[in-house]
């Protein structure tokens, strides 16, 4: 639900931007996103996922992925697995992997066969 609401808010911000913004600010800024909408659009075009790709599709996808990343990042920071370096959380690939593998909701969502394993973590536990 958070990914969908983030995508809808980004699309709303983009559609509400003025005509003057079209040439002075990029799509990502007008949508309030950090991820680059243009790179998502280019990936969709290069990947030939459809004959025609609307710019709104790239905005929607970028907002969804950014929201998913923020959720995963927040869960890694809340996990007890995170090491501290002078009081500052040390975000590494290993801590990300461990946090995702122990969280059934995130781990199942990031698998290509997600419909077969929902509700289980990397160890197969419910």
TrEMBL record:
The keyword Ribosomal protein is annotated on this UniProt entry: no
Transmembrane segments: none
Residue ranges occupied by any ABTB2/3 histone-like domain in the UniProt entry: 2-63
InterPro entries reported for this sequence: ABTB2/3_histone, Ankyrin-BTB/POZ_domain, Histone-fold
A UniProt-annotated Pfam family: Histone_ABTB
Keywords (A to Z) from UniProt: ANK repeat, Repeat
Example GO molecular function: protein heterodimerization activity
Source organism, top-level taxon: Eukaryota
Protein name, as recorded: ABTB2/3 histone-like domain-containing protein
Organism this protein belongs to: Champsocephalus esox
């Amino acid at each position: 639900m958070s990914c969908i609401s983030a995508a809808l808010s980004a699309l709303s911000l983009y559609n509400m931007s003025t005509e003057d913004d079209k040439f002075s600010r990029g799509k990502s800024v007008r949508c309030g996103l950090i991820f680059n909408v243009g790179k998502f659009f280019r990936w969709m075009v290069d990947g030939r996922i459809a004959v025609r790709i609307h710019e709104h599709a790239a905005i929607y996808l970028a907002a969804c992925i950014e929201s998913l990343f923020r959720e995963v990042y927040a869960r890694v920071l809340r996990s007890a697995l995170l090491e501290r370096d002078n009081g500052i959380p040390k975000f590494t690939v290993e801590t990300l992997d461990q946090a995702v593998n122990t969280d059934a909701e995130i781990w199942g969502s990031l698998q290509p066969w997600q419909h077969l394993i929902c509700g289980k973590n990397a160890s197969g536990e419910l």
